[in-house]
Fold this sequence. Notes:
The protein is built from seven helices and six strands.
Amino acid sequence: MKQRQLKLLGLILIGVVLLCNQFIWSSAAFGKSEDSPQKPRVIIILVDMSDSANEARQTVCKEAFEKIYRNLRQGDRVVVGTITSHSYIEFKPTVDAEIPNKTIWDNRLQFEKKLANTKEKIRGETNKLLSRERGTMLTEILDSLNIADIIFHDEKERQRILVLLSDMIEDSKEYNFDKDKITDEYIDKVIRDRRQKNLIPNFTGVKVYVAGASAADSNKFRAVQAFWARYLAKSGADFSPNRYGHSLINFENGP
């Protein structure tokens, strides 16, 4: 009887050890310990497909995507789409994938295979998009933000992040940042017009990054940056000039 009890106790201890090992590995699968749980995110990446952004797509935008890719963690949803001449009416995600979560019940090898396949699909499809050389004539960045708003709307639990890989030069039927003189009055008018049409997105709680920003000269660059700073502020976004530039200096590593 005593031998049976000891054997049973031994089996229980082995089971506990195995469960603990699974739990520890699950927590550390993306380099994080169980002491520092991080909220999963929905990361929307919008890629400027205009002719003017061709060179940036091949260089700084690819570099920016690699930083985002290396930062992905369990539970993250990644949506990659395009900014084109018809951003709103023709939008179709190039990528819409979720990084799988590891649980204590998952087989380690099967999970690692599923994880690798998911991440490779995200990287492959996005790099294919960034490698396209033929661009569109117009750039409807403002309307693209409304698409992001729609996607974010149903994401109540995950942290929301928007990354714009664009020169940020709006070139649509209504506005042409290259030709228009962007003053405070101009910005006021654009915001007023879009508010009247109920077109300003609700980005409350959305953290925004910009990489690929460019302009003909430094004055125009600062004017365009000022436009987006005010427009995104009206949308309620979490936006800082530190996250606006030609290169993505940091991604989720600081303010």
